[in-house]
Each structure stands twice: as structure tokens, then as C-alpha cells.
Amino acid sequence: MKLAGLPYRAGPLVWAANIAATCLVLFLFQKILWLVVPFILALIIYYVLMPLKLHLLLRGVSHDRAAAWVSLLAFGFFLLGAILGFSYLFGDAMGWQASAMRYLGGGIRLLTGAISDLEQRFGFIAESQAREMLEIQLGGFFEHFAETYIPGIALGIVAWSPSLLLAPFLAFFMLRDGWRFRRFLLRAVPNAYFERSLYVMDEVDRTARLYFVGLMQLTLLDTVCLALGLSAIGISGALTLGLATAVLAWVPYIGSVLGCLLVVLVAATDFPGQPGVAYAAIVLFLFVRLLDDFVFMPLTIGKSLKMHPLLTVLMIFVGGAVAGVPGLMLVLPVLGVIMVVGETLGMLLTDPRLRARYAHEQVLRQQLVTRDLKLD
Amino acid sequence: MKWLGGKGDVAKGEHQLAKTELFRDLSKRDFRVIDAFVQERHFMAGEVIFDAGEDGQALYVVISGKVAICLPERFATPLAELSAGDFFGELGLLDDSPRSAQARALEPVVLVVLSRTDFERLMNSHARIASRIALQLARHMGLRLRQMLAASSNGKDSS
Questions:
Q1: pLDDT at A97
Q2: Of B36, B45, B117, the CB nearest to A202
Q3: Which pLDDT does position B137 carry in this prediction?
Q4: Which pLDDT does position A142 carry in this prediction?
Q5: Interval B1-39: pLDDT, tens
Q6: Chain A residues 166-185 with CB within 8 Å of chain B
Q7: A73: Cβ–Cβ under 8 A, 6 or more apart, which residues?
Q8: Nearest residue of A to residue B47 by CA position?
Q9: What CATH homologous superfamily does B15-151 map to?
Q10: Does the pLDDT of residue B128 top 80, yes or no?
Q11: Contact, A19 vs A315, CB < 8 A?
């Protein structure tokens, strides 16, 4: 953005304020996490459906009607998917626990096999009796897994599910009334700052849209690459596994570790006694992650944020330290939006001409309202 | 099916933009599209609408009142006076250059504003409206060019 022909550059104070504001927002988000997660889901739905609404607007359909039609269409697709997927997903719900235990068993077999292999090669590992200790610890963990963890997980799902139902409602009202909210905000802006506010709003919208659309594109690319690679290795359910791993990757670092673990468990269970397949799956996973970090991400999400890579990595750590796993997920989009707002505010506050124009506007308004009050 | 919404905010009878130079030849359906993107803005007499050198973020159409286009540091009198139906601020959107002059309200003014994003969206996505707007912009530029040529030849004759 330029000011009187000169490009504006944010100073260290503005940058410090941006980072501090991001930390504060993440800290506050942590307190209302039950609302933040459905809100983010709603934003994703909103930005996915927005092009369709825009298409209808450009055909002369009103905002309200376009939002209603698009929401109905999306709900129809969701309902169809739910009906078709319900029997597939929940038909064998009783077998979920058995499957989970089978995959965990496969993982343990791979791990103990790997340690036995190492014990044969290196004497000091054999002397430490690492395999026996691992078997005892894992045995204890799985013996009490059901009574220790399942109630907590089930309770968490029950507590979180209703708030997730907020997402489609929020998305509908964003689609229907988002433009009214924008006009409402712009009406409150003094004339002197009007064009700058237009710029900020468009940039915030553009940044958020590119981020969430980029995230969807990244998920699609990750899913396709992993599914192709896993099916080439011969692992079952390659597409589902690819999708699950790509969605887990939304959480930086932790998501990738969980995704890798998932792939290894499935590979170890599908091919017992063939650790080479599990190792191949790990290599494939690492290759896709590298592809993701150095090729896909700069092409999708990176385009939206225009951030220095070092700052990106540092902010991910800061986000994790301030707000845990939600902080890891939210830090980049929050920083992206705050950067736009912060830089524009910095520019407004350091622009004497705009402040002078605002003061002039106030003087004119004062003259207008006091014109008939003076006694001559 | 009231839940599915109404037909938008188009007033009955002639649309307020129908008499403007930029949107003159558009149909009622086109005005419904335009209405989804524009907003109204009020300025007091003497208020600066935008300054020379700023980044142009919007195009303005005068609905009522008078606007002066001026360069106060170089000329004492306005370069042009615009009234209801005229438009300004389009140059910054067309060639992405800073504002070439200052726009100031000469009397209480009502303007319709089309932001840069929405202008570009309309130009890129709606062929009929884009072609009409492009035609009006070309006519407007042609008129300005002829006026400038006439003014410069008058200057030469008088010297």
C-alpha cells in the first residue's frame, strides 16, 4: 500500500504490536475454544461456498436469496453424503474397538521386531533388556486403556459435538449477512479513513479466503499424493488413510507425527512380518511432507500470508506455547489478519494528512450543527 | 418462499444510477447486480473526498451535489466541476496509479461508491456489465481528450 506515492513499511513497533496482538488473541481464543473451532469450520464452509454465492449475485440474484440457495444446496449434499456414508461408517461400529486394537497390535509387533533386530546387531541394547521393558509397559498400557481413556474420549466427543453443530448455522449467517456487516462497519468509518478502511477490509477478506481455500487445496494435494503412494505400496484403504493424514496435518508438527503413526500402524498390520513395507510407508510419508512444506505450501497457503519462513516457524512455536494445539492451528491465519490490520493502523496513525483531514471533517461538522446556535 | 429472500434493494421505478453517465445503458437486471456491490456515502460541503497521490481504492458516482476536481498546489481554480450523473476516481482503478488530483465536495454530496475489488470483480466476471462500463469509460476518456486538445489549441490561438 502506498501513501502519497511512497510505499509504507511497517516499523519494529508495528511488528512487535502485531506479534503481541496475535499472542493475546490466541490466549483469548483458548478461553472460548468451544466457539473458536465451530467458527473456523464455519469460515471454511463460508469460503468454500462464497464463489457459488458470488456467481448467483453476478446473475442478478439478491444477497439473501443467493445465500439461501447456496446453503440449501450445501445442506442437500451434506445430507446425501451422511445418508450414504452412515451405513458405511457406523454399520460396523462394534468392530471399531477390535480394529483399533488390531492396528495397535500390529504397531507393537513392528516396534518389538525392530528392537529385536537392533538387539541382535548391538550388544549394549540386548544387555539393557529394552524389548522386555517395552513389552511390559505397553502391556500395562493396553490392559487399562479402555477404562482409563475411553470414558474421557467419549465424554469429550459428547461435549464437543453440539458446538460443532453451530458451524453450518454460523456459515449460513456469514453468507447471508456478511455484506451487511461490512457495510455497517464501513458506515461507522469517518470519510477521511474510508478508502483505507475499504482496503483493510478487502485485504483481511482476501488473506482469510486465500488461507482457507489454500488449506483445502493443500489437503486435496496431500490426500492425492499419499493415496497414490500408499496404494502403490499396497496398503489397504489408501484414500481414507491419505485423507485422514492430510486433515491431521492441519495441526502443525503434532498432526504430522500422528499422521505418520497412523500410516505405520496400518502398514505394519496389513503386512505382518514385513517391516520393509512399514519403512517404505514412513519414507513415503516423509517425502510427501517435504513436498508439502517446500512445494505445495508455498503454492497454496504461503501465497496468502507473504510471511518470512523464519517468522512463520517461530510463530508456530509461540502459538503452541501460548495456546497449545489450538494455538498451533490458529497462529498463522490469526497473524496474517492481524498483520494487515496492524500495518494499516500503523500507516493511519503515522499519516498526518489523514489525521488533518479527519480534524477538518470534525470542524465542518461542528460548524454545520452549531450554525443556527450563534447569537449575533 | 419468503425464507429464500426478496429481489434485493432495487427501488421501484427508475434506478438512481440509471441517469448516471457510467451506468446509463444498463438493464434492471444489471442494476440488481450493481446494487449488490455499491454503497452510498455522504460528504459535507468543503470535505475532501480523496487527495492527490493516494492509492485509489474506489470509483465514485455523483448522485446529488457538486464535486470539484482540483490541484490546489498548482491551480487556484478547480480543473473540473462534476454534478449529478458524473463519475470520478476511475483512473486510479484502471492503471493502478496514485490519484492524479484532489476531489472535494463543493456542496453536500451523495456519492455511490464502487470499491476496487468489486469493480475488478464486475469487470472480470460479468461480460455484459463489463462491456457497457468499458464503453462508457472509453467515451468519457475520448471526451476528456477532445476537451484537452480544444483547450490546448485555444491556448495556442490566444498566444
A1: 67
A2: B117
A3: 87
A4: 65
A5: 334 444 444 445 567 788 888 888 788 888 888 888 889
A6: 179, 183
A7: A52
A8: A361
A9: Jelly Rolls (2.60.120.10)
A10: yes
A11: yes
Nearest to A22 by CA among A306, A309, A327: A327
pLDDT of residue A102 exceeding 50, the answer is yes
Best residue in B1, B2, B3, B4 for a mutation probing chain A (most A CBs within 10 Å): B4
Q: Which residues of A touch B98 (CB under 8 A)?
A: 2, 4-5
Residues of chain A neighbouring B30 (CB-CB closer than 8 A): 60
Distance from C-alpha of A366 to C-alpha of A265, rounded to nearest angstrom: 73
- When pLDDT is cut at 50, 70 and 90, the band that residue A230 belongs to is confident
d(Cα A332, Cα B106) in Å, to the nearest integer?
A: 46
CB-nearest partner of B44 from A195, A202, A364: A364
Please give the average per-residue pLDDT across A140-152, as a whole number. 69
Chain B interface includes A12 (CB < 8 A): no
How large is the ipTM? 0.80
Contacts of A360 in chain B (CB under 8 A): 46-48
Chain A residues with CB under 8 Å of B122 CB are 58
Q: Which residues of B touch A (CB under 8 A)?
A: 3-9, 29-30, 32-33, 36-37, 39, 41, 43-51, 53-58, 98, 113, 115-117, 121-122, 125-126
> By percentage, how much of chain A surpasses pLDDT 90?
8
Q: Is the pLDDT of residue A298 over 80?
A: no
Tell me the CB-side half-sphere exposure of residue A231, using CA atoms within 13 A.
11
| Alpha-carbon gap, residue A39 to A171, rounded angstroms | 8
pLDDT band for position A95 (cuts 50, 70, 90) = low
Q: What angle do CA A50, A215, A240 make, to 5 degrees?
A: 105
Q: Which residues in B76-103 are b (16+ Cβ under 10 Å) and which e?
A: eebeeebebbbbbbbbbbeeeebbebbb
Identify the residue among A2, A62, A173, A368 best suited for mutation to test binding to B, counting B beta carbons within 10 A and taking the highest. Answer: A62
The ranges assigned to domains in chain B are 15-151
Q: Which among B4, B44, B55 is the nearest to A65, CB-wise?
A: B4
Given the C-alpha cell 488473541, which residue does it identify? A25
**pLDDT the model gives residue B9:** 43
**Better-scored residue on pLDDT, A254 or A77:** A77
Cβ atoms of residues A140 and A11 within 8 Å: no
Q: Cα–Cα distances in Å, from A201 out to A66, A194, B29, B53?
A: 22, 11, 27, 21
